[in-house]
Design goal:
30% helix, 6-stranded antiparallel beta sheet, 9 helices, alpha+beta, 28% strand, 27 strands
């Protein structure tokens, strides 16, 4: 056996082994050392069994391991010319045994197929969307009854489960999986997998190899001999609705079962054609219900936003502060708060929420409470960021918060701040009119990870300097010609008002912004906070 190790598609090294186990990883003690700290120390192993068959075993999942472009999480059988990918490295597996002319020709064709981007094994049956079908009368009656049943359901949960049961029964499948999306493009929005025993199962790895053909090329695929351990044969077909390809249906059996062939593929293609339109109708009903709920959620979020917004700003002798918010037409996403700590320090937070409408009220309330609690106990900005992340983090949730929290000392001008995410603008306007944007470390957004290492940074706000905090909604504001207002226009407005009180500066900014978006759009909230040191 010989391994060709490539880095960024360029040959790095080769390795030969007659038998035994070959270790591959970032540890210098591995047989094949890959100097990438993201990889596991012993990331994977290649082992030959007593029958002379080579196997790939994935030991760590810090970086996905792909075999012929399919993600591997368990043991997989290796064949001549297979390609293993992890990070920026690829490893080509080559056998050096005595084989017949036919076997070598078969493996050469398979290797050529991989190089041209087709990761399906040789012998795979592929049908186009307009191919003629031959199905039995029994199957036709079964699919008709299933279609009638699906036309009566109102939720996708009630639609997908009976589909998987029908597929399992019709094709004597061991594992079935379905993925559905809202429109004719993008990732799957709903997925469901089921074993022959009726238990939920994860997505079968080989289904990823067929996804491009089904979803992008509307092809129906049957692989009679799947080169993955514990999988015999498999089929995958697209679900084609009126709006395009809305999903795919996948089925596989075990090595000892009768392999699927052209007749099975014809039947599964007919079944997919029968159920696609009813499933598409259920998706439309589901989205209509969600839109109605989103409208209600938006109204509640606005009411919550108003409830947690300051009615009057705190006052300091050495600091002048002003805040402005323009409500977005489409999204409720901004929050700000300003309080005075026990030692007269000014505490400011400006945040942009990216969350589902029904989650916004809770996030606004939690953010307001956590900030006030941090101010009460004079906790540092980074401790506030860690606390709100701990409160709101939920694995699998896509809801996030970008924020900037700053503690400003009126006496010394010392600014201690922490920034999470990249959609909050932090700057300092110097007394000579120069605008310096603060470039913090690339911290993740709140809720993007379980335990981010937020830390506070600092700078000094000199006399007559102004601290600027703003949300990225300023970049979404556009005029009738589609031009964005942007950060540059905000800087110009602030610098033009140099020497004026922050409240007067923001009044003039509001006038300019309203004139700019007349005939245009400002879909997102726009928030600007200025704090000037006397």
């Amino acid at each position: 056996m010989r391994l060709m190790i490539l880095e960024e598609r360029k040959l790095r090294d080769t390795f030969r082994a007659e038998s035994g186990t070959v270790s591959i990883g970032s540890d210098s003690g591995c047989d094949v050392h890959l100097p990438d700290p993201r990889l596991g120390k012993r990331h994977l192993e290649i082992t030959q069994d007593a029958e002379g068959i080579w196997w790939l075993d994935v030991r760590e999942a810090s970086v996905p391991t792909c075999l012929n472009r399919s993600v591997q999480k368990a043991r997989a059988k290796l064949r001549h010319a297979d390609e293993i990918e992890l990070g920026c490295f690829s490893i080509r597996f080559l056998t050096e045994s005595d084989q017949s002319r036919e076997e070598l020709q078969h493996e050469r064709l398979l290797s050529l197929t991989k190089r041209h981007g087709e990761s399906l094994p040789l012998g795979t049956i592929v049908l186009k969307e307009n191919a003629d079908l031959t199905i039995s009368r029994v199957h036709l009656e079964q699919f008709t009854l299933l279609t009638i049943r699906l036309s009566q359901v109102e939720s996708l949960g009630d639609a997908l489960a009976p589909v998987l049961r029908a597929v399992t029964r019709t094709f004597e499948a061991r594992r079935v999986w379905i993925g559905v999306r809202k429109s004719g493009r993008g990732d799957f929005d709903w997925t469901l997998g089921q074993s022959a025993q009726g238990r939920p199962c994860v997505r079968p790895p080989f289904s990823t190899s067929t996804q491009s053909r089904c979803m992008d090329h509307v092809q129906h695929v049957c692989t009679p001999d799947v080169p993955i351990e514990k999988v015999g044969s498999a089929m995958a077909v697209p679900l084609v609705g009126q709006a395009g390809t809305i999903g795919m249906l996948y089925v596989e059996n075990d090595p000892g079962d009768e392999p699927y062939g052209k007749a099975s593929l014809h039947a599964l293609k007919a079944m997919a054609g029968a159920i696609a339109i009813p499933i598409e109708n259920v998706i439309r009903q589901t989205l209509a219900v969600r839109r109605a709920a989103a409208d209600t959620g938006h109204t509640i979020a606005r009411a919550t936003q108003d409830a947690v917004t300051l009615q009057a700003l705190p006052q300091w002798e050495q600091l002048q502060v002003a805040a402005y918010r323009q409500m977005g037409t489409d999204k409720c996403c901004d929050f700000y708060d300003i309080v005075q700590l026990r030692d007269k320090t000014a505490a400011i937070v400006v945040a942009r929420l990216c969350a589902e409408p029904q989650s916004l009220p809770r996030y606004l309330a939690e953010l307001h409470a956590a900030f006030r609690c941090a101010a009460l106990y004079s906790e540092a900005p980074h401790l506030f960021a860690r606390a709100i992340n701990w409160l709101l983090f939920a694995a699998g949730s896509k809801n996030t918060i970008d924020l900037a929290a700053a503690w400003v000392s009126p006496k010394t001008g010392q600014v201690s701040y922490c920034v999470a995410g990249r959609r909050i603008i932090v700057g300092r306007i110097l007394s000579d009119g120069t605008c310096e944007m603060v470039q913090p470390e690339q911290n993740p957004s709140i809720c993007a990870s379980r335990a981010p290492a937020f830390e506070s940074k600092s700078f000094v706000l000199d006399h007559e300097d102004t601290l600027l905090l703003a949300t990225a909604g300023i970049n979404a504001a556009k005029n009738a010609q589609g031009e964005a207002f942007g950060m540059k226009s905000l800087e110009e407005n602030i610098c033009d008002g140099l020497g004026d009180r922050p409240g007067q500066v923001l009044n003039e900014f509001a006038t300019d912004l309203n004139e700019f978006v007349t005939g245009g759009a400002h879909p997102e909230d726009i928030t600007v906070v200025l704090m000037r040191r006397e």
